[in-house]
């Protein structure tokens, strides 16, 4: 493991990034040393179209009282939640202390009214391919955000802007980029990587999911 880490530093981040983009994520491989540098940019699709902040919307549909589509201005009208947290990919890299700002998902859910039959939430990306899921209980955590800012700036296109999901207590693959749709469902529909074998419950470390939830 030390050898791997040292090699990564020696060949330089750019080569390592290219390899990571090509090969990873390949599956949960336990804990390897965090690589030098920050985020990798991951996308399972090529050429994701850009959404402008003027026209972008996040639609909340499914088992809700009143489906609604939220513009960036609508989202800005909600209380804004700030979280300073490490971002960790299951393939081993981690970025310490990233600042995320956005709308706590439970506040959006309350705005549309969740039906009694709803048990889970399905998230869709406007890349047309990537999906994610949470149980309704997980989705009601206040450290699950529809994130609009990252480290003091609007979330960039490459990081999944204008809106990306940020699931603080779970591995990075839960934090779906280019968030376009939030659908309330009667059961969990496993997401893109989960269909390929990743855990549906993606808690980082030994978190039981309740220990450090902010209020
Ligand atoms: N739409 C979409 N969201 C995604 C992914 C992806 O390929 N497509 N990769 C996931 C994984 S595995 C990780 S670790 C993070 C990486 O976020 P970043 O590209 O901003 O570094 O995005 C997650 N969300
Ligand atoms: Mo990841």
TrEMBL record:
A single Pfam family it belongs to is: Oxidored_molyb
Transmembrane portions of the chain: none
| InterPro entries, A to Z | OxRdtase_Mopterin-bd_dom, OxRdtase_Mopterin-bd_sf
What the entry lists under Gene3D superfamilies is as follows:
Oxidoreductase, molybdopterin-binding domain
Annotated signal peptide: none
**Coiled coil start-end:** none
Domain Oxidoreductase molybdopterin-binding: start-end pairs = 48-193
Would you tell me the protein name for this molecule?
Oxidoreductase
Lineage of origin: Bacteria, Bacillati, Actinomycetota, Actinomycetes, Streptosporangiales
């Amino acid at each position: 493991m030390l050898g791997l880490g040292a090699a990564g530093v020696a060949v330089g981040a750019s080569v390592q990034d290219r390899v990571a983009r090509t090969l990873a994520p390949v599956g949960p491989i336990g804990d390897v040393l965090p690589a030098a540098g920050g985020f990798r940019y991951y996308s399972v699709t090529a050429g994701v179209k850009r959404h402008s902040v003027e026209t972008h919307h996040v639609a909340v549909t499914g088992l809700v009282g009143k489906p609604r589509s939220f513009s960036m201005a609508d989202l800005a009208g909600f209380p804004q939640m700030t979280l300073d947290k490490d971002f960790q990919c299951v393939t081993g890299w981690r970025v310490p202390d990233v600042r995320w700002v956005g709308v706590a998902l439970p506040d959006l859910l309350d705005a549309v009214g969740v039906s009694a039959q709803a048990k889970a939430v399905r998230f869709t990306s406007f890349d047309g391919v990537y999906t994610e899921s949470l149980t309704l209980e997980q989705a009601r955590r206040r450290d699950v955000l529809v994130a609009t800012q990252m480290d003091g700036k609007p979330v960039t296109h490459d990081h999944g802007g204008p809106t990306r999901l940020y699931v603080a207590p779970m591995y990075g693959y839960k934090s779906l980029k280019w968030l376009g749709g939030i659908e309330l469902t009667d059961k969990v529909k496993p997401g893109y990587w989960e269909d390929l074998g990743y855990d549906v419950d993606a808690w980082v470390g030994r978190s039981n999911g309740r220990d450090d939830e902010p209020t």
